[in-house]
Amino acid sequence: MTDLLSLFRTMVRIRAFEDAAEAASQGGVTWGGAATDKVSEVRVKGPLHLSTGQEAVAAGVCAHLNAEDLLTSTHRGHGHTLAKGADATKMMCELFGRASGYNGGKGGSMHIADFSVGMLGANGVVTAGLPIAVGAAHALKIRKTDAIAVSFFGDGAINRGPFLEALNWAQVYRLPVLFVCEDNQISATTRSAPMTAGSSAASARAESMGIAATRVDGNSVEAVSAAAAQLIAQIRAGSGPKLLHAITYRQKGHVSVDPATYRDPAEVANALLDDPIGRARTLLRQRGLADEAANVEAEARAEIAAALLVASSAEVPDGQAAYTDIMTTGDGTWT
User: How many CA atoms lie within 13 A of 111 on its CB side?
Assistant: First the structure.
């Protein structure tokens, strides 16, 4: 099993990034900064979906992936992207719409991709990453590699057709793919349970197709890591697809400027007591690693503070960049 301090490092990097990005979208204070440490203006001017509170799932799963393994994400994909090995500074530049961002400043938060680390992309369309991951897994099988594909998706995705289509295709062809349901219990602004038929629906629907499903406490990074390690090893050995159903909680609103007043404050307060980073920090202290944990958190803050500084002063794309990376059905002349 990957050691807890390493998993903790990934989680606090994600939290530092999300908190800083949230502040940048509001013109507020950066995470861990003084009251005078202002971003000073709204830097993120498009949709920003935070994964605050869900860090254990990304960290626990991606700890067992190689660069050759492929991953698809959701509109809430910063954590997955960082955990897969993407560069935090290039990510922040992309959020700020800068030319040095992953997509040249033209994709923003929901379209970050880094093929060099196997990150095939975040996706603004609910469930759209699943069939992409299945296609990637099919290609991996044809090439006879031992790499696998992983697809993260939310609990709201299981009610859309591509979820069943992707699982069916993966099982029919025994593809090397791990489906990870990041069940944060709310779909945008609506509780998932009342609009989802069946108990433990993600697991039950997978099992109905013969795909083994493992349910895990998504706020325990060690539990996620242990489950992911076992499932990924089985997939690499040729077992076919598996599903990991991680129960977690989204601490923020649907987007960074959403106060989430539709949720019971008592529910949120109770969920914060089960914060995955807080739980891991407590375990590290109990194991005599309090100083090491504090150093890891300080390093994460420093890394993201540096990323903010670079992104804030980076160049915006030239206007002509709007005409690159696109296809035309005409003669290719733009005016």
Answer: 12
Please report the pLDDT score of residue 69 as a whole number. Answer: 98
The Cα–Cα gap between 212 and 252 comes to 31
Q: What is the pLDDT of residue 1?
A: 44
Q: pTM for the full model? A: 0.91
In the DSSP assignment, the letter for residue 151 is E
Q: Hey, what long-range contacts does 61-64 have (CB within 8 A, 24 or more apart)?
A: 61/150, 61/152, 61/178, 61/180, 61/224, 61/225, 61/228, 61/244, 62/10, 62/150, 63/2, 63/6, 63/7, 63/10, 63/225, 63/228, 64/2, 64/225, 64/228, 64/229, 64/232
In Å, how far are 5, 6, 247 from 281, measured between CA atoms?
Answer: 9, 12, 20
Rounded to whole angstroms, how far apart are CA atoms 180 and 292?
30
End-to-end CA distance of the chain: 57
Judge contact between 5 and 292, C-beta under 8 A.
yes
Rounded-to-integer distance, Cα 238 and Cα 175, Å = 8
C-alpha distances (whole Å) from 291 to each of 225, 286, 287, 294 are: 23, 12, 11, 5
CA distance 331 to 334: 9
71-128 pLDDT per residue, tens: 999 999 999 999 999 999 999 999 999 999 999 998 888 999 999 999 999 999 999 9
pLDDT < 70 regions, the chain: 1-2, 28-40, 328-335
pLDDT tens-place string over residues 185-203: 888 878 787 778 877 788 9
User: Residue type at 45?
Assistant: K
CA distance 226 to 45: 38
Give the ranges where the chain is alpha helix by DSSP (H). Answer: 4-26, 55-62, 78-83, 88-95, 129-143, 161-172, 201-207, 221-236, 265-272, 276-286, 290-313
